[in-house]
Amino acid sequence: MAHTTLLIRTDAPIARITPRLYGHFAEHLGRCCYDGIWVGSQRDTIPQQNGFRSDVLAALCALPVPMLRWPGGCYADHYHWRDGIGPPDERPRRLGMSCGLQVEDDNRLGTHEFLWFCAQIGAEPYLAGNLGSGTPQELCDWLEYCNTSLPTTLGQLRAANGAQAAFGVKLWGVGNESWGCGGNYDAATYAREYVRYATMLRRVDPAAELIACGYEDDWNAELLAVIGNRTHLVDHLSIHRYWVNGGPEITFSEADYYALLAEAAATEYVVRRTAEIIRDATGGKQPIGIALDEWGVWHPEVREWGPGAAARTPVTYEQANTLRDALAAAIALEGFHRQCQVLTLANLAQVVNVLQAVVMTEAQHMWLTPTYHALRLHAPHIGATALPVLVEQGSRLPDGAPAVSATASRADGQIAITLINRHFNQPASVRLVCADAPRQAYGQLLTADSPRAVNTAEQPDAVAPVDLAVYHDGAGVWQIELPPHTLATVRLQSS
Ligand code: AHR
Questions:
Q1: Which of 25, 28, 74 for mutating ligand 1's site (highest number of atoms within 8 Å of CB)?
Q2: pLDDT at 308 over 90
Q3: I need a labelling partner for 215 at 20 to 30 A (CA). Which of 29, 162, 192, 269 fits?
Q4: Mean pLDDT across 352-364
Q5: SS3 of 384, please?
Q6: Which string of DSSP letters, residue by residue, matches 272-332?
């Protein structure tokens, strides 16, 4: 077997990997929020704290979840925040709408509950505001309610509802997918609306960071052209990226397997292209970050449209999560690290039960998906400094592309390297070369006999990390063996 050599460039740091690149997304959609993180209505049967499932709370604390976006998604442009404050029994019951689903939403999970949940799991909150069916005043009021320290009527109302101190929510989305479910705007009309909202929001709280809805290249270029010299009103431009070309969720072929991984890898090019558009529109000053607001796998079983759609009925947006999906997430994260100078936040969609969830629940059962474990293996990179990795390939994929890829970072005297062997059925032998690294090495591997392996309520640990042997092979050199379709993290540290 040919060796692959990975050279970790400790001498050429890229930038800090902001914790915001490891964000998640919780929408009032299917069983993500209600019956996922929130089980207020099943208090007697499922252990909970303040209405939130205790097992989910613990799992998300451990992951970690540095940032959480809420309440949508498409739901956000129907959501009126006043419905979700005050005594729970007095809150209105509304038509909850997102992605073609309609449910009765009793608004038990509102602003205070969500922000309490974020505080418990250590997540920075990101509130997605309603532009589609709201008004600038309504969104300004939500911002004031959350963030003012003055005893205004809204500030006092917040205090009366239990939060004396301002929440200080930094991240505010101005609409969601405004080109589609958020109002079917054209780019120029949305841009003018955005400028109006952002002008007002800036005055309420100049420290709030505002996220404008981006889309594809043409939309982004036109949006920025209309915004013109008012780019000081935009902190982040959002894009969404779902991978939809990987065939069936579990019974995929080898060709499907590679197609999904290729789509995941292409996410980096979308980020780079978006960065170029921003640079061109702003004279190279790059004052606007890219917010990859929603990303992940969207399998045909949970869509009624698009290539190979095979929707289950009723559509619940719940899908299987295989080891392949975990590898796809890891491939995307490699790109996020390489682009961490321009990519300012990213949210995996969605956090519990829906789409590429990290946690699944079913009545009393809760289990972690392979994607959870993939993210957990990336925890050492959060907040660390990204390092380039040069790859001298030994092993190759059937199309000749490199089989092994990696990302690395440094923090507090530790160097962490996460490696992927993308090959469907061939192992890889890897030499890690890292000149000034400490000698102690610890490895963890996410593997299974098949990339189609999943975790279920009955077999929650079918895919779970195991220890990986890391052999020291002379000064600054380590040797590891990676089975096919695997992900591993090696930490080099002082003790
Ligand atoms: O994540 C599911 C949906 O996908 C979101 O509501 C929407 O923003 C996107 O189209």
A1: 74
A2: no
A3: 29
A4: 97
A5: coil
A6: HHHHHHHHHHTTT---SEEEEEEEEE--GGG-SSSTT----SS-------BHHHHHHHHHH
